[in-house]
Amino acid sequence: MLMGVGLGILQSSPEENPSESEVKMKVDTITQPxxxxxxxxxxxxxxxxxxxxxxxxxxxxxTDKVYYTATVENGVLMLWKTDLRKWYERFVHFSFQSxxxxxxxxxxxxxxxxVQSYSMDVLVAEGVSFDRASVTASSGDIQYLGDxxxxxxxSLSSGSLFVQGVSTGKIDGKVTSGRMELTDISCNRLTLKSxxxxxxxxxxxxxxxxxxxxxxxxxSLSHVLSQGRLNAKLTSGSLRLDQCDAKxxxxKLTSGSxxxxxxxxxxxxxxxxxxSVDVPPSVPYADLCEIETxxxSVDLAIEQNx
Length: 306
Description:
The chain has 306 residues and is mainly β. Helices cover 0% and strands 72% of the residues. The protein has a 17-stranded mixed sheet that branches. Strand 1 and strand 2 (24-30) form a beta hairpin. It is elongated. The two termini are 39 Å apart.
């Protein structure tokens, strides 16, 4: 059962930032019950961490005209930026000296997290737990180290995406340009898509299916084990698999090479228009491994998982 937090919102208590007298640190102590968190952040980093004292605090930089508002509406902790400057004042560039908004959450399982970030970093720390989590950022880095029991959706236009130690039902990650790195994860379904950059996955257990798609760049999979299908699609670049396995594999490349190792014997079906092919002997009735590449080489071995 999900439980709320406290009874109301206490008055903010500002602390002067000695590095810039105009900017103060505003602390909102949230005591009204909530089960979800929704944040929209402009021009500031966002850190969501577990509370050490069981109290929910939102700490943010503020001036008289530019500040963050934290309030609870219909059981949702809402966080957004308020800008009271006149339209002509906004032509002058303004940024906080220490642009970080910190949300400390009492440890419990929350229903949902929704974050929309513009041009800065987002951190969801270990020890924070949601049933569903969705983080979207225009640029910057996303680090997700907490729990998302049913679903984790991450979308980033430009930057780096890092996920570690997550066990969930579904993981869906999208990066237009940048790097995706996932390590020590388990889920039912895993889907990662990128236009250009790098997709790296280390130590993943997938009970149903995983799908990796990259237009240009590199896909590197290490100790990725799927009880269902493993699909990888790459237009231009390289695909590396180290001690990976699945009930069925489909690896399709337009231009690029496939190298690495699988954990068990396969029934191979390999087509390469231009390039060398070196795979172990195909075993009838074993799990199917289909590989297609127009231009590039294929070099795979069988190695037992460590």
